[in-house]
Design a protein that fits this description.
The complex is a heterodimer of chains A (about 220) and B (about 210).
Chain A lengths: L1 E11 L2 E12 L2 E6 L5 H9 L6 E6 L2 E2 L4 H7 E4 L3 H4 L5 H11 L4 H14 L15 H13 L5 E5 L7 H13 L3 E5 L3 H4 L4 E6 L2 E6 L1 H11 L2
Parallel strand pairs in A: 3-8, 3-9, 6-7, 7-8
Antiparallel strand pairs in A: 1-2, 1-4, 4-5, 9-10
Helix pairs in contact in A: 4-5, 4-6, 6-7
Chain B lengths: L10 H4 L2 H17 L3 H16 L5 H25 L2 H23 L3 H17 L5 H31 L10 H21 L13
Helix pairs in contact in B: 2-5, 3-5, 4-5, 6-7, 7-8
The chains are: A alpha/beta (about 220), B mainly alpha (about 210).
Chain lengths: ~220, ~210
């Protein structure tokens, strides 16, 4: 994975949600921390192409998010903060198939792709279940499954453990840890990010910390004591 | 994230979605072509029989029809004020028959089957360069999918009023309901974009 921010910034109605920044992200596990409204989600949405930069450019594996959004979206899966808004169809299997059909996966391959993805996450038994019947942890894994099924090389997770109890938080954190794909995770759960190789710290729309997890998390905690 | 689909294995469940939607179109034409009370009454009985034959508890079956049923009665009431009773009866029978058949087909057809069928029906329009068939299928599927969510939100607003000791008036729920629905629509649109559901063919990854 190689993500390049080239003086990329976002301004909403005259207010800078993210001040222009230039940096390159490589590596398998990158964490993002910061207070609410600090620009974390804007930064992550720029990578998937969900938010367009109002200045500068963002490139994912060499592709510009403005010029080649479909390819960027296919390469960089995005799991939202509220999984209930990510799952579009009520039955889990149908929802995952919807994403696969849109990517032109052959009808004959759909069942195997769904089954394989859910088995990988340990939730194969939920395939025929309705999303509203699932627990918070199961729903989060289901949303992750819907993204993984399309085989992105990078998964962006926006506060994946935010709404979960301790048991489900651990379960989701372990699943994320075991993913083969590269991961960029926004989280307030600092323990989850402590094993990440690089952490970015945002504050009031600016990148104020970038480095190994331990030092950036320590800086974040010191700033918000 | 409720669903209007009801699990089951009735004749209606087993029929192809295309045939069901085609029948609904033919049925709609029939009820609006005819003004005969007897004929419309017979169609209403037929549609209601199909609906109540579905594996739902009577309370659940009636609850689904309350919003549209109330609207039909309102239309009937206005007709009764301004027109002869026969006109009011015809409009109530027409709309009620359609309501029962549409509700029965919705309850007996999974959303993906609707999406696939509507997409197939819309293909000639895509070939004519007028639109993208998959968008039409997805739009219809999303409407069916989100009806229960909107009702759920209405009940949540009702509960929030009660919890705060505020008298609930249905008209007062309209603005928060619209705001909540639009906000969720934004989230769903984001999810559709992020997941590449509107046309992100896998082959593009190899560009």
């Amino acid at each position: 994975m190689r993500i390049e921010f080239l003086e990329a910034g976002v301004t909403y109605e005259g207010r800078a949600a993210l001040h222009p920044l230039t940096l390159t992200l490589t590596g398998r596990r990158i964490g993002i921390i910061g207070l609410n409204g600090s620009g974390k989600t804007t930064f992550a949405r720029l990578i998937n192409g969900l938010t367009k930069p109002t200045t500068g450019k963002v490139r994912v594996n060499g592709r510009d998010t403005l010029d080649d959004q479909a390819a960027v979206t296919a390469d960089a899966g995005y799991v939202f903060q509220s999984p209930q808004n990510q799952i579009i169809l009520p039955i889990l299997k149908d929802d995952i198939e919807l994403g696969l059909k849109a990517r032109g996966v052959a009808k004959a391959d759909l069942a195997a792709r769904v089954e394989g993805t859910l088995a990988r996450l340990g939730i194969a038994h939920l395939a025929e279940r309705r999303a509203h019947e699932l627990s918070g942890g199961e729903l989060q894994l289901a949303a992750l499954g819907a993204v993984l099924a399309t085989r992105p090389s990078l998964v962006i997770l926006d506060e994946p453990t935010n709404q979960l109890d301790l048991k489900n938080r651990r379960r989701v954190a372990e699943t994320i840890d075991a993913l083969d794909e590269d991961v960029i995770a926004i989280s307030h759960d600092l323990a989850t990010l402590s094993s990440f190789e690089r952490v970015l710290h945002f504050h009031e729309g600016r990148l104020v910390g970038d480095g190994p997890a331990a030092s950036v998390i320590a800086q974040y905690e010191a700033m918000n004591r | 994230m409720q669903s209007l689909y009801v699990e089951g294995n009735t004749v209606l469940h087993r029929l192809p979605a295309g045939l069901k939607l085609g029948s609904l179109i033919a049925f709609s034409i029939a009820v609006f072509v005819s003004g005969s009370l007897a004929f419309l009454g017979a169609l209403l009985v037929l549609a209601a029989s199909l609906y109540f034959a579905l594996p739902m508890r009577p309370r659940q079956a009636f609850a689904r029809l309350v919003p549209i049923g109330a609207a039909i009665l309102l239309v009937g009431g206005f007709n009764l004020i301004f027109s002869p009773w026969q006109v009011a009866a015809v409009s109530v029978l027409r709309l009620s028959a359609l309501m029962f058949l549409a509700a029965a087909i919705t309850a007996a057809t999974p959303v993906p089957a609707f999406i696939d069928t509507v997409t197939r029906f819309a293909m000639p329009l895509e070939r004519a360069g007028l639109l993208r068939a998959a968008d039409i299928g997805l739009a219809v599927g999303l409407v069916i999918r989100f009806v229960p969510d909107i009702l759920q939100r209405y009940h949540a607003i009702h509960d929030a009023h009660r919890a705060r000791g505020i008298r609930f008036r249905p008209s007062g729920a309209i603005v928060p309901l619209i705001i909540l629905t639009l906000r969720d629509a934004d989230s769903i649109a984001d999810a559709i974009d992020a997941r590449g559901i509107r046309g992100g063919q896998e082959k593009r990854k190899t560009k």
